[in-house]
Design brief:
It contains one helix and 23 strands. By secondary structure, it is mainly β. The longest helix has 12 residues, at about 5-15. It is globular and about 70 Å long. It comes from Spirosoma linguale (strain ATCC 33905 / DSM 74 / LMG 10896 / Claus 1). Keywords: Signal. This is Phosphate-selective porin O and P.
Length: about 500
């Protein structure tokens, strides 16, 4: 070994030996304990009786910066692997070949986080990773090709100042962040979601004028009594930078190709019982698996001046504001603490005004690459595979319910089950009838959210071919069965 490298290796070994694994709730974000890090000692004694008490199993990678553990730095890793069988929308093709259905393997999310309380007033958060990585690598671009080696990117890079020491009253931060308004599902903690996937429509501008729901923002957030709040000013990206072919002007609204205005957001939650985690900027826990008694009412909004544009008549360009708001209730609480049973429930109403007749199809980890031109509903592209009208001007009602079965259902250390149902029901200007997307699923929680399998069946509508000036009519329904394996530490 080059002698000049020895100090580097020695330093790395010393640092890694001090990483502690303190017990934590298995949610993202998680509260940080105040206990000092515990060293792990490996015994090399031979032919001796084992110790009377083994060391407790640990759940996190954490390095304490002070003796009390109030200053720390932490790493987490997440991987969600999907095995997907999908009945494709009519006319779907896979790399130029028509396919009625597909069986595919992909990575829904692969993430790593580095974050910590650097001092009493300073918090740093970094996240790096990739999403929707399958054999199409997120889909062919406008040149008909893709690059499987450039998927990973920085999701978050946030610096936060805590105004009052050891108090959550006011935190001021800035950077690339998912601190969003509108709803709790606009800033979801993806490692702790109750169902297999989040309702992506609540991430209202995802990959249009943001970076996978992250924006360059300045925000203030905190908790005062029962109120949890966040207010945000964002600097949205021009749609020209999203890597897709640019939309064209027409009678239906699109994101504006000219001009640039700031976006303003807010989310306010009234917490009747326990407070939710508030440490990591932005992320809101999906389910606490009965560890907390949460009953919340929430209201949120997103607004941006002249964000949308359409042609009222040839040569008559009309700019419109984007105005989105929602109200919702959320419950996550134990039923029987002795048995470990719990429920998770959410019901929300979303008013989504993207301008005149705006509509966008989307599908998670889409396994199809294109759709025959003759089969395009409303003349829209990207309607192949497992997509449906996820975003549109109109209104959406979203609900979910899950039941956590008793602890150690299959015996000590063998985990338990959590079945769930989801429903997304929308009325959009450009769709003739009510749109309903329904999911039913089952979580096998091997070790809480740290290791779990989820089997999910989704039933969605597909739409008839039509010109761009006509409203869309449902032609029938298709299904998708997905098995997810999540590992998180």
């Amino acid at each position: 070994m080059n002698t000049s490298m020895k100090p580097v290796w020695v330093s790395a070994l010393l640092l890694s030996s001090q990483l502690a694994f303190a017990q934590q709730p298995t949610t993202l974000p998680a509260d940080t304990t105040k206990k000092p890090a515990t060293s792990i000692i490996v015994s090399e004694r031979v032919n001796q009786a084992p110790a009377q008490k083994s060391a407790a199993e640990k759940n996190e990678l954490k390095y304490n910066l002070n003796e009390s553990g109030s200053h720390f730095f932490k790493a987490t890793f997440l991987n969600q692997t999907w095995l997907q069988f999908n009945q494709s929308n009519p006319g779907s093709t896979v790399v130029g070949v028509p396919k009625d259905n597909t069986l595919s393997i992909g990575l829904r999310r692969t993430r790593m986080q580095l974050f910590g309380q650097i001092s009493d007033h300073v918090f740093l958060y970094i996240q790096f990773g990739m999403n929707n990585f399958n054999y199409l690598n997120g889909g062919f671009n406008q040149t008909g090709s893709s690059n499987r080696k450039i998927q990973a990117f920085f999701h978050d890079a946030v610096s936060e100042y805590i105004v009052w020491k050891n108090k959550d009253y006011l935190k001021i931060g800035g950077g690339l962040t998912i601190v969003n308004g509108l709803s709790r599902f606009s800033s979801p903690s993806v490692s702790s979601i109750m169902s297999m996937d989040v309702p992506v429509f609540a991430q209202a501008t995802v990959d249009q004028t943001d970076e996978f729901s992250r924006k360059l923002s300045l925000y203030a957030r905190g908790q005062v009594g029962h109120l949890d709040y966040r207010v945000v000013m964002s600097d949205p990206f021009p749609i020209q930078t999203n890597g897709a072919a640019l939309p064209t002007y027409g009678p239906n609204s699109i994101f504006a190709l000219k001009g640039h205005n700031k976006q303003f957001q807010g989310l306010f939650m009234w917490q009747f019982f326990d407070k939710e985690t508030n440490q990591v900027p932005g992320y809101i826990t999906g389910t606490y698996l009965g560890a907390r008694r949460i009953v919340n009412l929430e209201a949120g909004f997103i607004t941006q001046k002249n964000a949308m544009v359409h042609l009222a008549a040839p040569g008559d360009t009309v700019y419109q504001n984007m105005n989105l708001w929602s109200v919702a209730s959320y419950v996550d609480m134990p039923l029987n603490k002795a048995k470990g049973t719990a429920i998770n429930a959410y019901l929300g109403y979303f008013h989504t005004d993207y301008g005149n007749n705006y509509l966008r199809f989307n599908g998670a980890l889409n396994p199809a690459s294109d759709i025959a031109a003759a089969q395009r509903p409303g003349g829209l592209g990207n309607t192949q595979g497992n997509t449906f009208p996820m975003f549109g001007t109109g209104s959406v009602v979203y609900g979910q319910f899950g039941y956590l079965m008793k602890r150690n259902l299959f015996g000590p250390g063998n985990g338990t089950l959590m079945p769930y149902v989801q429903a997304q029901v929308a009325n959009y200007q450009r769709v003739t009838n009510t749109l309903g997307v329904y999911n039913v699923g089952l979580n096998y929680l091997i070790k809480g959210h740290n290791g779990k399998f989820t089997l999910d069946y989704q039933n969605r509508p597909y739409y008839e071919p039509s010109p761009s000036t006509s409203p869309l009519s449902a032609g029938g329904r298709r299904g998708q069965l997905t098995l997810q394996y999540q590992v998180f530490i």
